[in-house]
Amino acid sequence: MRIDPAIAAMRREPALQRRAQAAMIAAGGEWRREPAVAAMLGELDRFGAGEPLEACPALDAAFTGRRAAGELAAALCRRFASMLEHEPFGHPPFRHGFDGQVSTLLLARAGRAQLILHAREPGRWDYASAGYSDALRYEAVLAGAAHARVTRVHAGPGAAAFSTGSLELVPGARLALDLSCEALQVLQIERRLVSLRLHRFDAAPRPSREYALTDGALLHQSAGDMQASRYEVMIALLGRMERREAAPEIAALAREPGDDSLRWQALREGLALDTAAGFRALTAVAQAAGDPLAGPAGALRAQLAEAHPELLALEDDSCPA
Predict the structure, then answer these.
(1) pTM of the model
(2) CB atoms closer than 10 angstroms to residue 319
(3) What are 213-229's pLDDT values in tens digits?
(4) Fewer beta carbons within 10 Å, N or C terminal of the chain?
(5) 172: alpha, beta or left? (left if phi > 0; alpha if psi -120 to 50)
């Protein structure tokens, strides 16, 4: 296998790698200090804390005006393209991803808000479902051409219903989406679509939801709170590791107010780790008036008690059968 001499030199001398990365970090600092960029990033803290976009004039101009978003991206390209001419193996100091179709650069994050440079490759897409989460998204199209639709969900007592609206995404297009009921679905991209996105999660988000477009059936639901999602993963890991000493804390978490998805996961893992503690927690939740999990917990308790009557003997005095 041939190794380029420049790469071989960096493997021999780590100082060259450190120099390249220091140059990238310096370029990022220079970009952030540009007056227009500094004004936007300064307001991101306020927007991330919950202030409306119109109360943040520099950010508002990027997502309602014609020029500010392009100027921010142009400044970014100018700083880093110039530096990459001298340090071609440097990595821009942003969290980034690419899956073959979609590229993302996380330019900044503050509180519940994120500023993202988003690109999508040309192609066609079909959708069998639509997903929704408690968040707002503003989008400024910088380059490319695409045909898309906004799919709005109308939840009722039964299955969800939908309405759609078509739109053309071209440079200068500006979008404001309530992601709790609106999903942007790109159907066809003629030229690589590049957008600047401003995203803010709700302070207390409900679980994210995915519905089938054919019949409105709920296909999937997951924690809307990133912290709750992390706790779910940790609880599942403790369960797989069979860490029985964690069972009391997991059972206590199931009984505390909070994210219902996290609490249900705690009930399941608590039962698996320590049957007695888990069943007592399940009974407590089932008997808690007004608890949204009381119904499902009661149904599960009844099923378990019918299959294993000896479980009723595990309940303590505070949780009578």
Answers:
(1) 0.76
(2) 16
(3) 999 998 887 766 677 77
(4) N
(5) left
